[in-house]
Amino acid sequence: MNAGIIGLGKYVPEKVLTNFDLEKMIDTNDEWIRTRTGIEERRIAADHEDTSDLAYEAAKQAIENSGIEASQIGLILVATVTPDQGFPSVACQIQERLGATKASAMDVSAACSGFIYGIATAKQFVESGSYPYVLVVGAEKLTKIVDWEDRNTAVLFGDGACAAVIGQVSEGRGILAFELGADGSGGKHLYLNQEQAISMNGREVFKFAVRQMGESAVSVLGKAGLSKEDVDFLVPHQANIRIMEASRERLELPEEKLSKRIHKYGNTSSASIGIALKDELDEGKIKDDDIVVLVGFGGGLTWGAAVIKW
Ligand code: ACO
């Protein structure tokens, strides 16, 4: 039995915050942000919108897109570092709203790697026959943990959500291989501080990300019995265009095979890979039979990669 993505959804809030808006708030400028990160604008959730609202919208769309009923879902996994509250989990909150009455539910805390941790976990439950369908969501209202006076981090993040229904797909398709990893000794480089704001050593995270994304992408291809030449599309975590380009170069891929959506959304942590994947599919960039590599890294430190035959 093979598990794969059978439905996808995404949701981003309406409000756009551009680099020019940020120029009026902190000592920064559009040119610095664009050249150092690739970001031009990001979405900001309204005061009344919290992570569970973003998660719900993306999840509803993914379920509709998959053609199943919410009541058929056996497990809901929500990857997030910005839950509405400590508990109940975002997964339980959306379980009720979606009417997924038969689903168990829990949140996954692996920062920006959370969506890949989620789909790798979902694969186990589907392929073992435990649940026919698992809903995986990546949702973040990062702007509530941004220190708007810290220009090192305030320019990087945005809000958004993605969702995928994982179910059975035909032989030879779906999630062919995955790789997950963690290095707790690097936790000090990226964490939520006592003021409940993001603290980051940008240079250390940058070095780690360039190394780890490249290594994971190569390694996961090996696990799937594939090589760099087989890759049709690379969807990396959208954290910084220079980190994304480095992973493309490591796989020796041409420019057009890299998913670049960071300019519109900034870094949406666990939502970024799924949002980018959905945009590529909607625009016809990813087609049936394509080999797609997803790769991410995040606070923890954590990393994850997956190879999917579409
Ligand atoms: N506007 C203008 N100048 C700035 C800004 C800004 N927003 N931020 C920093 N600078 C200045 C710095 O103060 C520094 O000035 P100085 O030389 O006078 O001290 C200068 O720009 C260069 O700073 P660097 O840190 O060397 O800039 P760098 O090229 O490394 O880029 C960045 C910084 C973009 C943060 C980069 O290090 C990076 O992307 N790191 C990875 C971040 C990341 O991906 N984090 C993931 C978090 S995801 C999660 O898990 C929540």
From TrEMBL:
Pathway annotation from the record: Lipid metabolism; fatty acid biosynthesis
Residues of the Beta-ketoacyl-[acyl-carrier-protein] synthase III C-terminal domain: 222-310
Official protein name in the record = Beta-ketoacyl-[acyl-carrier-protein] synthase III
- ACP-binding, as annotated region: 238-242
Q: Does the keyword Cytoplasm apply?
A: yes
Q: Which residues form the Beta-ketoacyl-[acyl-carrier-protein] synthase III N-terminal domain?
A: 106-184
Location relative to the cell: Cytoplasm
Keywords of the record, alphabetical order, are: Acyltransferase, Cytoplasm, Fatty acid biosynthesis, Fatty acid metabolism, Lipid biosynthesis, Lipid metabolism, Multifunctional enzyme, Transferase
What is its biological role? Catalyzes the condensation reaction of fatty acid synthesis by the addition to an acyl acceptor of two carbons from malonyl-ACP. Catalyzes the first condensation reaction which initiates fatty acid synthesis and may therefore play a role in governing the total rate of fatty acid production. Possesses both acetoacetyl-ACP synthase and acetyl transacylase activities. Its substrate specificity determines the biosynthesis of branched-chain and/or straight-chain of fatty acids.
Q: Does the keyword Ubl conjugation apply?
A: no
